[in-house]
Amino acid sequence: LLFDQGMLQRYVLLCAQNVTGGLRDKPSARRDFYHSCYNISGLSVAQQVDSLPDFGHPSESVVHETHPVYNLRTERVRKMLTHWQTQPIILDLS
Q1: Which end of the chain is more exposed for a tag (fewer CB within 10 A), N or C?
Q2: Which cellular component terms (GO) are annotated to the entry (predicted)?
Q3: How far is the C-alpha of 90 from the C-alpha of 74, rounded, in Å?
Q4: Confidence (pTM)
Q5: Is 67 among the domain residues?
Protein backbone atom coordinates (compact mmCIF):
# COMPACT_ATOMS: atom_id res chain seq x y z
CA LEU A 1 0.00 0.00 0.00
CA LEU A 2 1.00 3.60 -0.44
CA PHE A 3 0.69 4.64 3.20
CA ASP A 4 1.92 3.61 6.62
CA GLN A 5 -0.87 1.35 7.88
CA GLY A 6 0.34 1.41 11.48
CA MET A 7 0.53 5.20 11.62
CA LEU A 8 -2.94 5.60 10.12
CA GLN A 9 -4.38 3.25 12.74
CA ARG A 10 -2.55 5.13 15.48
CA TYR A 11 -3.83 8.51 14.23
CA VAL A 12 -7.45 7.37 13.94
CA LEU A 13 -7.49 5.63 17.32
CA LEU A 14 -5.49 8.21 19.28
CA CYS A 15 -6.08 11.56 17.57
CA ALA A 16 -9.29 11.44 15.53
CA GLN A 17 -11.59 10.12 18.26
CA ASN A 18 -13.73 12.57 20.17
CA VAL A 19 -13.94 11.77 23.89
CA THR A 20 -17.75 11.86 23.73
CA GLY A 21 -17.95 9.71 20.59
CA GLY A 22 -17.58 10.15 16.88
CA LEU A 23 -14.53 10.83 14.77
CA ARG A 24 -13.13 14.03 13.35
CA ASP A 25 -10.71 15.29 10.73
CA LYS A 26 -8.12 16.56 13.22
CA PRO A 27 -8.00 16.99 17.01
CA SER A 28 -9.04 20.66 16.83
CA ALA A 29 -12.11 19.94 14.66
CA ARG A 30 -15.60 18.87 15.66
CA ARG A 31 -16.84 15.34 15.10
CA ASP A 32 -19.25 14.67 12.23
CA PHE A 33 -20.80 11.77 10.35
CA TYR A 34 -18.67 12.26 7.23
CA HIS A 35 -15.36 12.06 9.08
CA SER A 36 -16.61 9.20 11.27
CA CYS A 37 -17.36 7.14 8.15
CA TYR A 38 -14.15 8.28 6.44
CA ASN A 39 -11.99 7.37 9.47
CA ILE A 40 -13.60 3.97 10.00
CA SER A 41 -13.17 3.15 6.31
CA GLY A 42 -9.50 4.11 6.44
CA LEU A 43 -9.00 2.14 9.64
CA SER A 44 -10.55 -0.94 8.04
CA VAL A 45 -8.32 -0.73 4.95
CA ALA A 46 -5.25 -0.17 7.14
CA GLN A 47 -6.04 -3.28 9.18
CA GLN A 48 -6.26 -5.59 6.16
CA VAL A 49 -2.51 -6.06 5.92
CA ASP A 50 -2.01 -8.13 9.09
CA SER A 51 -1.02 -4.97 10.93
CA LEU A 52 -3.05 -4.76 14.11
CA PRO A 53 -2.61 -1.76 16.38
CA ASP A 54 0.41 -2.05 18.65
CA PHE A 55 -1.25 -0.12 21.46
CA GLY A 56 -4.36 -0.59 23.55
CA HIS A 57 -6.30 -3.83 23.36
CA PRO A 58 -6.37 -5.04 19.71
CA SER A 59 -9.74 -6.79 20.00
CA GLU A 60 -11.33 -3.45 20.91
CA SER A 61 -9.66 -1.59 18.04
CA VAL A 62 -10.29 -3.89 15.07
CA VAL A 63 -13.14 -3.09 12.69
CA HIS A 64 -14.78 -5.27 10.03
CA GLU A 65 -13.08 -5.52 6.67
CA THR A 66 -14.62 -3.17 4.11
CA HIS A 67 -14.33 -3.21 0.35
CA PRO A 68 -12.13 -0.25 -0.68
CA VAL A 69 -14.27 0.63 -3.72
CA TYR A 70 -17.82 0.13 -2.43
CA ASN A 71 -17.15 1.02 1.23
CA LEU A 72 -19.32 -1.89 2.35
CA ARG A 73 -18.37 -4.93 4.39
CA THR A 74 -16.70 -7.41 2.04
CA GLU A 75 -19.14 -10.23 2.78
CA ARG A 76 -22.00 -7.91 1.69
CA VAL A 77 -20.19 -7.11 -1.55
CA ARG A 78 -19.70 -10.83 -2.22
CA LYS A 79 -23.43 -11.48 -1.66
CA MET A 80 -24.37 -8.56 -3.89
CA LEU A 81 -22.09 -9.68 -6.73
CA THR A 82 -23.26 -13.29 -6.43
CA HIS A 83 -26.89 -12.19 -6.59
CA TRP A 84 -26.49 -9.93 -9.61
CA GLN A 85 -24.37 -12.45 -11.51
CA THR A 86 -27.34 -14.83 -11.49
CA GLN A 87 -29.80 -12.26 -12.85
CA PRO A 88 -30.59 -12.04 -16.55
CA ILE A 89 -29.43 -9.03 -18.51
CA ILE A 90 -32.41 -7.22 -19.99
CA LEU A 91 -31.71 -4.89 -22.87
CA ASP A 92 -34.50 -2.71 -24.14
CA LEU A 93 -33.11 -0.95 -27.19
CA SER A 94 -36.44 0.42 -28.41
Answers
A1: C
A2: protein farnesyltransferase complex
A3: 27
A4: 0.70
A5: yes
